[in-house]
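Margin note from the TA: students keep mixing up input and output lines. Inputs are the sequences; the output is the structure of the whole complex. Example:
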Amino acid sequence: MERANVTRSVEDAAALIKDGMTVATGGLLFANHPMPIIRQMIRNGVRNLTLVGPASSGLDVDLLIGAGCVTTLISPYVSGESLIGYGPCYRQAVERGEMKVWEVTEGLEYMGLRAAALGLPFLPYRGGVGSDIPKLNPEIKEFRDPIKGELLCAVPAIKPDVALIHVQRSDCYGNGQHLGSTYGDRLMAHAADCVILTCDKLVSNEVIRRTPLLTTIAYATVVVETAFGSHPYASHGLYGEDTEVLREYVEAAESRRTGNPDKFARFLDKYIHGPADHFAYLDLVGAARLVRLAASYDDLVQGG
Amino acid sequence: MERANVTRSVEDAAALIKDGMTVATGGLLFANHPMPIIRQMIRNGVRNLTLVGPASSGLDVDLLIGAGCVTTLISPYVSGESLIGYGPCYRQAVERGEMKVWEVTEGLEYMGLRAAALGLPFLPYRGGVGSDIPKLNPEIKEFRDPIKGELLCAVPAIKPDVALIHVQRSDCYGNGQHLGSTYGDRLMAHAADCVILTCDKLVSNEVIRRTPLLTTIAYATVVVETAFGSHPYASHGLYGEDTEVLREYVEAAESRRTGNPDKFARFLDKYIHGPADHFAYLDLVGAARLVRLAASYDDLVQGG
Amino acid sequence: MGLDAAPYEMMAIAIARDLQNGKRVIVGADTQIPHAAVMLAQNLHAPDLKVIYGANCFWGNTRGRNPDLYVSSGAYQMIRSAESRFDHPEIFHRLWAIDHFFAGGIEVDKFGNVNILGIPDGAGGWKFRAAGPVGLPDIAVNVREPYIFSKRHDRRVLVDRVALNSCPGFLDGPGGRERLGLWGKGPRWIITPKCIFDFHPESKRARLHRLLPGVTVQEVIEATGFEIELPERVEVLPGPAEEELQLLRSIDKDGNLRVRPK
Amino acid sequence: MGLDAAPYEMMAIAIARDLQNGKRVIVGADTQIPHAAVMLAQNLHAPDLKVIYGANCFWGNTRGRNPDLYVSSGAYQMIRSAESRFDHPEIFHRLWAIDHFFAGGIEVDKFGNVNILGIPDGAGGWKFRAAGPVGLPDIAVNVREPYIFSKRHDRRVLVDRVALNSCPGFLDGPGGRERLGLWGKGPRWIITPKCIFDFHPESKRARLHRLLPGVTVQEVIEATGFEIELPERVEVLPGPAEEELQLLRSIDKDGNLRVRPK
């Protein structure tokens, strides 16, 4: 009997995500997003998700909102940062009352995820005290601590059914390694029942055994090999973000927000519904551009 | 103006530790203990410490107890594991009522340290519920959580004045790297006001910048260069433990426990009071033995 | 079969057989028997048994790697089979996803409670102080089904009621865990050099489940300090298969499990 | 001096001058001005300024390394000056040891409270929704002395009372922080393209501390939506030293800080 290989296709992995689930997505702002799974979720028409976004969510989360997948968002921030200060689809959905925001701070989001990881009903934090967050989210309760009597916020456990995490490399048993920032990925993975890992490169188990100190996610439920799997975002250690595609997104989403949905529909058609699979997506982006994005990283320090 | 070099001598670093302080020591069982500082504390005759030991404390903690430095111990376990199932000096001090044990579980010790790191008065955990720990330590309070009403233990913040941590390498700015297990060292360092780092090897800042993913302790307060600084314990990545000296310790400490303190006094004289400094200590142990301890590690995987 | 395993070897084999493929387990301090068991299982029927070396903060897999049985559970050599390092505090993440742990102590009682703290002197002090509870009080209330094991089987270890409870089993019997809202099902077995106890589903009391080869029911009753639930028929654990014993001894090169129990 | 710095450049220089050697700071999302300030300070008088790149989870030091001013605070290139990576949740460890953070928002009021959530419509919905509070509510009640900065100085940003408080300053004035037991001293400055406010030690209201070169008191009063505490004499911030401006422009190669404020 041999060890089970947990690699799956994008399609098979994304099929694990059902309507109504609580799904966490990793990375932060412009890096390390499990994009092939996100695109497949949109293709599959997944609905009514409670989405747990990165503590600083980027336009990946905005895209899922714009595609109509999200009913409730748990995230303290959705921004295009240097390109646009807020997520256009996020802003639109909130202002129109089409999506519920479970208001939270970064610190409280992490404490909620940690509570789930630790199997606790809640964790306390000082963040939120003195702000309007507990008024906007009645599930976050101010209370006096049982030892010193200090005023703290109690945040209930935030428990994803699935966490979608992108790493630079993994073996076929689900041992993943981040070659740059880990962001909140590890805590999301620890909190979730099931971890879907996308990796830019599938490596042998021997590579992992030579560098066990770099393994950041142990034994993910399934692993999907997706070269340039974070495109159009950066993958820390391997390639930079594709500003051109991101600008295209911002323009499309902002035009949708201001009343003209056509460009956004065309963006979805072009990048999501059009390509038959992840390889077709890469061909659409083009080899020359991908090579340039990889070259932007090649003079930087590496993992070990 | 140049960046400040924070390297110090063993003597200067140990002088930061004053009578009555709360001191955390890192590593676990048979590995990664900051021994030159521990020996210097004993030479200095430090008294009345509240010692926060590793979650599985080894004979390093037992030695500090035997040398009379510790008034209160915060540790869920003091053991010589494969050599002896309990710390002899620990057992003696507890049975004679000479030292207070602040009873705690591993999980609660870590939650107490995390509370200090997060600046919280307490954190909750389920560990301890149903056991006699809250009865033995009235500072750990059972309470009902403010959200679901579940029964949990509240542990107050455990806040060390100083954390003593051993790493395999560090630069002169206090950026330390563990080349094997980190144990609870990072949380101890995060909870403490001041971090004293011993390192087997001082490396250039360029080495650290080439491998920032391996940096486990950022900006320690002071760094002490101490080759074989964890001897007689292992230093993960560099050398194994010296079972011969550890057996000598166990024999001396167990003989003290059973009423004959001479051997223990001779052990202290030989290994602690005798050698003029850390180099004299290494000469006492002998080059051949140190080389063999290092050789026991040389076929194993390394950090990066 | 004609093969003879020493009692500690037989304990390791019995645990290995019980560990199902794909389960997640933690092996803690000073636990050579469980450590041998998980390596044996990984190399036999459970290549996907996911093992945390608790004292070393590694997720490890020894499958097909000619493993050693390290004398210390903190042996630095474990990095040889490591696939991931983690900060020790993270061992408390996902305990709800851990199937088994292996708990031992100085006393074990009929409801599967364990004492690893020591024996109080009744006057606020200690008659005997053991090493301390480690993480057992945490693990016992979070992990699905811990195993309890003891290298000795006598009336000092297997007692009617533990002097101190530092690893909650079924507490004072039926409904005890539920009343406190503890997670996990409670202990799976008590395994000793003489036998395996499981727990009666209603009474939650230790029930004789299997005898180790060569041990009689009478011998167990005499050596046990609590009243045992006896099923109608007590089966004897089948002796080791050739492959099991051969592989176990290739792991336990120094014969640590071949010593006679005290 | 005869050197002219653009307002955003002058803001970066003013912050850099105020950052003392050895302090610990976090630079967050979308904050080019503070990011330029910490790099400038590290390369001038504060080589031991300890900087967390909050959006990238690195501790970094740019001292003597010819740094770039990255357009995004999450720029992957920051690993060039990184000395340590950490998991982002750990940014909340030791916030009590962090001296400064840099907070911005859509509204800032006279007590140094910031709104980065948005403007409610008064009927349970939103007139305008901003990106969200990020970690500001956490940082504001833990870090010693955050700076508040705004790239715009007008009556829509500098308001009497924030519509929503998502980054507590001195709340409703004297004793506000103490009543809730918040950690940290409260905000140090509000810095804008026109001036620097500090806070009156008793009233806790924003007090005009320094004018940026070329700005008048009257101009500040007119552009500010709250009543300003005016000291007897308002000093003008000294213009940039040659070394400061030269170094800043070697950092801000693309001239991001030379654009005119809106």
